[in-house]
Amino acid sequence: MQLAATRIITDDVDALVTFYEKVTGITADRLHPMFAELRTASGTLAIASSATTPLLGDNVAHARANRSVLLDFLVDDVDALYATLRVDAAYAALRSDHDVFVNEPTDMPWGNRSLLVRDPDGNLINFFTPIQQAARTRP
C-alpha cells in the first residue's frame, strides 16, 4: 500500500491553490476548475471543491471543518521561509483575510525547528527543518 495523496476540501479552490503555490514554490496541476494537485517526490497535496463532495456521499466532508489534521512540510530553512512570508507583499494580501501565523519559528523537543501557520481555510500547517540543519543555516 502507498499513500497517494492528502486532499483538502474547500469552498475556494483558487484561494487555497494560490496559498499553497506561494508557500511551497510548487506550481499546482489544475486538472479541473474544481480540483488541483501539488506534487512532491514524497506525496501529493490535492485540493478539491466542496462541490465534489456529493460524488463521495452525503455529508462526508465539510470545508473549513478540520481541527485535527496537521500537514507537515520539510523545508530547507524555516527561518528564511518565515522572513520571506512576513515581508512578501503578495503574501501580505493573503494574510488580510485570516490570521496566518500560529507561532514564530520554534525549536521542538523532538529535534525540529517548526513554523506553524494556518491556510486560508484554517488548516494547520507545520513547516519544519531538523535543528541540526537549521543551526547550519542561521547566522
UniProtKB/TrEMBL annotation:
What SUPFAM superfamilies would the database entry show?
Answer: Glyoxalase/Bleomycin resistance protein/Dihydroxybiphenyl dioxygenase
Database matches in InterPro entries:
Glyas_Bleomycin-R_OHBP_Dase, Glyas_Fos-R_dOase_dom, VOC_core
What positions does the domain VOC occupy?
A: 2-130
Q: Which domain of life is it from?
A: Bacteria
Gene3D superfamilies registered for this protein in UniProt: 2,3-Dihydroxybiphenyl 1,2-Dioxygenase, domain 1
- Protein name according to UniProt: VOC family protein
Which organism's genome codes for this protein? Answer: Microlunatus elymi
Lineage start: Bacteria, Bacillati, Actinomycetota, Actinomycetes, Propionibacteriales
